[in-house]
């Protein structure tokens, strides 16, 4: 979702974030209802639809609004001319970005599309053992139970991570290039001890925890749910004068996310149950309804 990268705060307005979270949950629920697991949920596979008003612009108006195409010459690395017979164009045109910064998007523009079904699969017909989601939002069973087929619950774990990220200015688990064991340690800081059989199989746990499950690092290095929420959701919003999440909503939100990130896949809610949760029904889905009404104005 490039709109986040273009924003100074790297935040959506709160009602926009709620709406996008609800729309994504609805999309995942619909995919699951057809018997499919998406298998690669992350922000990069979420798109915002361009406003239909662009269809009414002439070429001249489009160029006036977004700039004319910029031609970049194609050159060989050795500096030699390109023979016409090879069919290589003389110029290429870099893509234009037609969006806007995330904090400038209003509810009428919060129209989400779930993209890239290239690794989607039907658990009823296919055994999938490999997770293709980015490591920071990959479900833990992909690491601890590599011979157990992935299921709908793997999408729910990733969905929970994305919901947090839509509300925050960064991902729930820190470290895009962090190794699996470091990510597991962060997950334990969030969710508490692993299931006993996973704990016993985690070879590098002694780097972060003692046998009783106590963190070996300083307290300042342990990032709990409350700390991540305060530092990555509330404080950035406050610093940019944006609306923050109230106490009652925070309780409902974290209750949902903890459920979605339950260690065992069978202990997570279905996508349909996510939609029926308190946070969804009281905050996210009403924001989605507001967006839909704005689309038709």
What is the 3D form? globular
How far from one another are the termini?
25 Å
Q: How would you classify the quaternary structure?
A: single chain
Structural class: mainly alpha
The helicity comes to: 40-55%
Domain module count: 1
Q: State the name of the first-level CATH class.
A: Mainly Alpha
Strand order in the sheet with the most strands = 1-4
Descriptive notes:
- The chain has 297 residues and is mainly α.
- The chain is built from eleven helices and four strands, in the order H-H-E-H-E-E-E-H-H-H-H-H-H-H-H.
- It has helices at residues 2-5, 14-33, 59-66, 141-144, 152-167, 180-191, 196-201, 225-239, 247-260, 271-275, 278-295, and strands at residues 46-48, 72-73, 91-92, 112-114.
- The radius of gyration is 22 Å and the shape is globular.
- The protein starts with a helix and ends with a helix.
- The mean pLDDT is 92.
Put the structure in a nutshell.
This protein has 11 helices and 4 strands; from the N terminus they run H-H-E-H-E-E-E-H-H-H-H-H-H-H-H.
Indicate the topology.
Elements lengths: L1 H4 L8 H20 L12 E3 L10 H8 L5 E2 L17 E2 L19 E3 L26 H4 L7 H16 L12 H12 L4 H6 L23 H15 L7 H14 L10 H5 L2 H18 L2
Antiparallel strand pairs: 1-4, 2-3
Helix pairs in contact: 2-5, 2-11, 5-9, 9-11
List its salient traits.
297 residues; mainly alpha; Transferase(Phosphotransferase), domain 1; two-stranded antiparallel sheet; 3% strand
């Amino acid at each position: 979702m490039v709109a986040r990268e273009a924003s100074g705060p790297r935040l959506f307005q709160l009602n926009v974030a709620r709406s996008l979270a609800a729309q994504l949950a609805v999309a995942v629920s619909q995919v699951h209802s057809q018997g499919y697991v998406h298998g690669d949920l992350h922000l990069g596979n979420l798109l915002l639809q361009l406003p239909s008003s662009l269809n009414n612009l002439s070429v001249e108006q489009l160029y006036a609004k977004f700039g004319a195409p910029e031609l970049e010459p194609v050159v060989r690395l050795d500096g030699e001319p390109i023979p016409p017979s090879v069919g290589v164009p003389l110029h290429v045109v870099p893509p234009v970005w037609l969006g806007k910064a995330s904090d400038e998007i209003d509810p009428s523009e919060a129209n989400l599309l779930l993209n890239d079904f290239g690794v989607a699969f039907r658990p009823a017909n296919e055994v999938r053992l490999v997770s293709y989601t980015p490591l920071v939002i990959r479900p833990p069973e992909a690491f601890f139970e590599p011979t157990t087929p992935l299921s709908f619950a793997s999408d729910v774990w990733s969905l929970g991570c994305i919901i947090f990220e839509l509300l925050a200015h960064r991902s729930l688990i820190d470290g895009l290039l962090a190794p699996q064991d470091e990510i597991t340690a962060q997950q334990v800081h969030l969710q508490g001890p692993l299931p006993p059989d996973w704990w016993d199989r985690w070879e590098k746990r002694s780097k972060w925890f003692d046998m009783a499950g106590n963190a070996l690092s300083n307290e300042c290095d342990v990032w709990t749910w409350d700390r991540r929420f305060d530092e990555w959701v509330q404080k950035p919003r406050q610093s940019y004068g944006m609306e923050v999440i109230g106490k009652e909503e925070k309780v409902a939100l974290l209750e949902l996310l903890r459920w979605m990130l339950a260690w065992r896949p069978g202990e997570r809610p279905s996508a349909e149950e996510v939609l029926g949760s308190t946070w969804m029904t009281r905050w996210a889905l009403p924001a989605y309804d507001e967006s839909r009404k704005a689309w038709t104005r």
